[in-house]
Amino acid sequence: ASETDMTVTVRAGDVTKEVRITPENFDVTQLIEVPAGAPMTIEAQGSGQGVYQAVTRYNLPAAEEEQNIFDITVDFDTTNVAVNDTVGVDVSVKFNPPVDPLDDVRSPVKAGMVVLDIAVPTGFAPVTETLDALVAGNPKVKRYDVAGRKVILYIEDMTAGETINFSFDVQAQYPVRAKGAPSQAYSYYTPEWRGETIGQDVTVR
To answer: How many whole angstroms separate alpha carbon 1 and alpha carbon 31?
Structure first.
């Protein structure tokens, strides 16, 4: 805000960095890289309020092809918004049952209850009214839970080759440059049947 004038000092291991926050740059996200695993302290001097976020990056092995029983995509209808703006989250999931390698015939099994863990970008909150409307308007979607930065949806029995599409809204809460986060789909009773996707990066001004 216009009264903000502070210096933020970040210390991690043997690294010390300072960031000056003024009325000219208070709404700009500033990135500071520090050593992983080192104890970190953040000290602010001056006037105003600041918001910080700590992000740890690490590598995971790529998912095995045979595990992609579900094709899932999660797209945002825009990736550059302002605080309080609403963004549509478009979700699509397709059930691809296992194939018997002996006769190349799809197994005559159903997916059972399918769980979708949809990542909500950092700096956003789900608009629960749109989730309520989704459950009320789509008989396949039985219910939802919000857990941290995840919206968890429960989809009733999917059949071979079936695709389900739906959307809900999230609202920007504060300025941030959010990296894409993983969303996944899996069968509740056969959890090795799964699929995963990485969402888009999103910037809130």
So the answer is: 19
Q: Give me 147's structure tokens.
A: 């857990």
What's phi and psi for 137, nearest 5 deg?
-100, -10
Q: Quick count: other Cβ atoms within 10 Å of Cβ 69?
A: 20
What is the Cα–Cα distance from 72 to 183, expressed in whole angstroms? Answer: 8
Q: What is the pTM of this model?
A: 0.65
Tokens of 38: 């080192």
Cβ-contact 87, 76 below 8 angstroms? yes
Q: Are the C-beta atoms of residues 182 and 69 closer than 8 Å to each other?
A: no
Q: Which residues contact 179 (CB under 8 A, 6 or more apart)?
A: 55, 122, 201
- pLDDT tens for 96-146 read 987 655 555 554 567 889 999 999 999 999 999 999 999 999 999 999 999
Instruction: Convert 8-46 to b/e letters by CB count within 10 Å (16 or more is b).
Output: bebbbeeeeeebebeeeebeebeeeeeeeeeeeeeeeee
Structure tokens at 14: 């043997």
Residue 28: which H helix or E strand, with range? Answer: none
> What are the phi and psi torsion angles at 126 (to 5°)?
-65, 145
Structural element, H or E, at residue 129: helix 128-137
Provide the token pair at 64. Answer: 């095995």
